[in-house]
Amino acid sequence: KLRHTPFRITWPFLNYCCCCLMKKRKKRFDLAIKRSLRKRLALGVSKSDQRLEDDPFLMLGFGLNSYFDVMIQLMIMVAIISCVMFPLMYTLSRFSALEQFPGYSTNKYTLGNIGGANSLCNHATFMGGEKTIVSMQCGTNSLIDLDAFASNTNTVLF
Questions:
Q1: Domain of life, per the record (predicted)?
Q2: Which residues lie closer than 8 Å to 120 by C-beta, 6 or more apart?
Q3: What is the chain's mean pLDDT, rounded?
Q4: Which of 104, 122, 131, 145 is least crowded, fewest Cβ atoms below 10 Å from its Cβ?
């Protein structure tokens, strides 16, 4: 019975996209016969038959209709997330920090392409009796000494 369902009901967004190109909706033949017999018998058309004619998906039951509702909500959510993410991905693709690495065509849209992902890790162990110098290079190529000195003896603490 659902294979005769018109496209306007199956895909309601087509009403907005191609409203001029679609044919006018025809009534189903079996429901038209049922309606004409009811008129001959002087019976009115029941509300359930009228609703079934307006929306044939009611024959499928609550489970499938709720599934379609959830799918529509998920599509709307993906559209909203895409509207937020596309400008962000465009902004990230303008940087070129990952240009020399393989897979740049897909990695240029990631946060690592900004260039703040370079890090230098040094490991120093503090052993008893040995002096360890901790220093940091500044932007002007000068070194800042980070040794800790005792205030009364002026000796290096570590």
A1: Eukaryota
A2: none
A3: 73
A4: 122
**Torsion sign over Cα 31, 36, 40, 43:** positive
pLDDT tens, residue by residue, 96-130: 877 888 888 888 888 777 765 445 555 555 555 56
How many helices (DSSP H) and strands (DSSP E) are in the chain? 6, 2
| Residue 69: count of CB within 10 angstroms of its CB | 10
pTM of the model: 0.42
Tokens 């902004």 — which residue? 91
Are 147 and 155 a contacting pair, CB within 8 Å? no
Contacts of 136 (CB under 8 A, 6+ apart): 143, 144, 146
pLDDT grade for 79, boundaries at 50, 70 and 90: very high
Tokens of residue 110, six digits: 């990631």
Give, as one character, the DSSP assignment of residue 22: S
Contact 8, 32 (CB under 8 A): no
Contact 56, 3 (CB under 8 A): no
Contacts made by residues 128-137, CB under 8 angstroms, sequence distance 24+: 131/156, 131/158, 132/158
Question: Which tokens sit at 121?
Answer: 């890790």
